């Protein structure tokens, strides 16, 4: 059950006004500190850390130890503001996921599969490997030595592959299942993943250039083979229809687009409620409950896909502007990150420091090793350039992957951007914040870590076998 909100609308108003100010301060600090710019740390991360340090857990704790009677024992923010922030991530993450596929270009099936299949194999292998590594650690160390629940095995995939948004969205599930330290550990791991993703990616790029593994920097673009063109640009008729629509309806474009976001979330909610109803009259009657713990945000993603498909079938895609959808999702993600980081319990993190370090080191090691050793065998062409996107996404968020792609192949001469984008259609609905990400803690809770280890190991083996075979076939076809 969700806790009843004990605050007024004015508290909500000032809570988000403070977020806006914190984002401006975060942007200013980021621009002033060269190390933050060089690591490509988003302003929202900086703002969230500032809010955390000025809140009850950091500033308030210091003041409490010096003068318990001081009005700053709660930090610079009121209790009601902190309550608003603590409840915000699980709501705004729904908006983020609803916007992921709204307004996206959808290629033909043949084109889609040719470009996406190798990337899907590598991305899925990295994600399922994170579960395998986490489950092995949980079974051998984290549960028997540190007495953490077996679902701690999910944290690497939730935090590294899913990022701050997914970590915040999964907080309610972890709490319901009794893993109260899970949300704080996930958010802290997501921050480590984001920073380490940029650092390790930058180091690997220098290594790739030094060893000659980066092909696009050595060949003229006109001689490159298998270079993919960019996704088709929007047709002029669509642009004209959109302009006429906004003029005739007298509606702000962002308002119309936000309406489709709401529709996507509503469809996702209906799907989730239907699944819960089916569960209640079938296996749920025997005491096995899974769907009741599934959060709404992965269903919002499916709702967005459904809305986009309907608009495509009815030739109404001009109703949605992809840049505006990215802006809406970007704003919601910034709010999610700031409020989630501001709500981290530093005491919980300190109590679980060693398990936290074990998970962080193991996650980073698996991701880098998977890129270096699996990439050449799963990606038939330009494996280094194309694999960097998956490495970045597996250690932060999709934007981290795109950032590394821009660093290694700014002109998109390898076709990595399209392959990376198309991969998301067969990736994000499942892992990285998708259906299995949402279900994994429940599966471990109900069936135990050993059975889920066998399941995830089997799925990892499937993607590796498929990836090796697909890569070999594509290389044969091009020779």
Structure, explained:
This protein has about 475 residues and is mainly α. Helix content is about 70%, strand content about 0%. It has helices at about 10-30, 35-40, 45-55, 55-65, 80-85, 90-100, 110-145, 155-160, 165-170, 170-175, 180-210, 235-250, 255-280, 295-315, 320-340, 345-350, 355-380, 385-395, 400-410, 415-425, 435-445, 450-479. Helix 5 (about 80-85) packs across helix 15 (about 320-340) and helix 18 packs across helix 20. The radius of gyration is 23 Å and the shape is globular. The termini are far apart.
Topology overview:
Blueprint: H1 9-32, H2 34-38, H3 43-53, H4 56-66, H5 79-87, H6 89-98, H7 109-146, H8 155-161, H9 163-169, H10 171-176, H11 182-211, H12 236-249, H13 253-281, H14 297-313, H15 322-342, H16 346-351, H17 353-378, H18 383-394, H19 398-408, H20 416-423, H21 435-447, H22 449-478
Helix pairs in contact: 1-3, 1-5, 1-15, 3-15, 5-15, 6-9, 6-14, 6-15, 7-8, 7-17, 7-18, 7-20, 7-22, 8-9, 8-11, 9-11, 11-17, 11-18, 11-19, 13-14, 17-18, 18-19, 18-20, 21-22
């Amino acid at each position: 059950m969700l806790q009843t909100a004990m605050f007024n609308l004015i508290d909500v108003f000032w809570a988000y006004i403070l977020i806006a100010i914190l984002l401006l301060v975060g942007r200013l600090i980021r621009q002033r500190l060269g190390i933050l710019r060089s690591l490509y740390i988003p302003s929202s991360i900086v703002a969230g850390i500032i809010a955390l340090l000025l809140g009850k857990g950091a500033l308030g704790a210091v003041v409490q130890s010096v003068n318990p009677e001081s009005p700053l024992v709660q930090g610079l923010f009121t209790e009601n503001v902190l309550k608003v922030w603590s409840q915000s991530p699980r709501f705004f993450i729904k908006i983020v996921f609803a916007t992921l596929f709204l307004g996206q270009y959808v290629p033909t099936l043949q084109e889609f599969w040719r470009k996406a299949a190798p990337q899907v194999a590598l991305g899925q292998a990295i994600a399922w490997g994170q579960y395998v590594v986490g489950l092995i650690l949980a079974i051998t160390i984290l549960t028997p030595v540190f007495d953490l629940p077996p679902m701690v095995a999910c944290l690497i995939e939730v935090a590294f592959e899913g990022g701050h948004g997914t970590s915040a969205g999964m907080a309610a599930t972890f709490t319901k299942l009794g893993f109260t330290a899970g949300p704080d550990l996930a958010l802290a791991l997501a921050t480590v993943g984001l920073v380490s993703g940029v650092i390790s990616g930058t180091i690997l790029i220098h290594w790739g250039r030094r060893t000659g593994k980066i092909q696009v920097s050595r060949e003229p673009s006109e001689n490159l083979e298998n270079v993919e063109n960019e996704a088709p640009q929007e047709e002029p008729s669509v642009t004209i229809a959109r302009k006429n629509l906004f003029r005739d309806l007298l509606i702000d474009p962002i308002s119309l687009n936000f309406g489709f976001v709401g529709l996507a979330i509503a469809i996702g909610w209906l799907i989730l409620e239907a699944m819960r109803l089916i569960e209640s009259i079938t296996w749920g009657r025997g005491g096995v409950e899974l769907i009741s713990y599934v959060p709404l945000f992965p269903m919002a993603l499916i709702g967005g896909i459904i809305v986009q498909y309907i608009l495509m079938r009815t030739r109404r895609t001009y109703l949605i502007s992809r840049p505006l959808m990215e802006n809406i999702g970007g704003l919601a993600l910034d709010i999610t990150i700031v409020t989630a980081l501001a709500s981290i319990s530093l005491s919980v993190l300190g109590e679980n420091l060693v398990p936290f370090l074990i998970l962080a080191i193991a996650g980073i090691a698996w991701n880098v090793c998977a890129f270096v050793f699996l990439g050449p065998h799963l990606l038939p062409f330009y494996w280094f350039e194309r694999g960097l996107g998956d490495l970045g996404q597996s250690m932060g968020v999709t934007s981290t992957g795109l950032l590394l792609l821009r660093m290694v192949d700014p002109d998109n001469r390898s076709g990595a951007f399209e392959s990376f984008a198309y991969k998301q259609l067969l990736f994000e609905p499942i892992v990285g914040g998708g259906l299995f990400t949402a279900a994994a803690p429940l599966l471990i809770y109900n069936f135990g870590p050993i059975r889920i280890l066998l399941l995830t190991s089997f799925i990892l083996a499937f993607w590796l076998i498929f990836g090796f075979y697909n890569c070999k076939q594509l290389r044969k076809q091009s020779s």
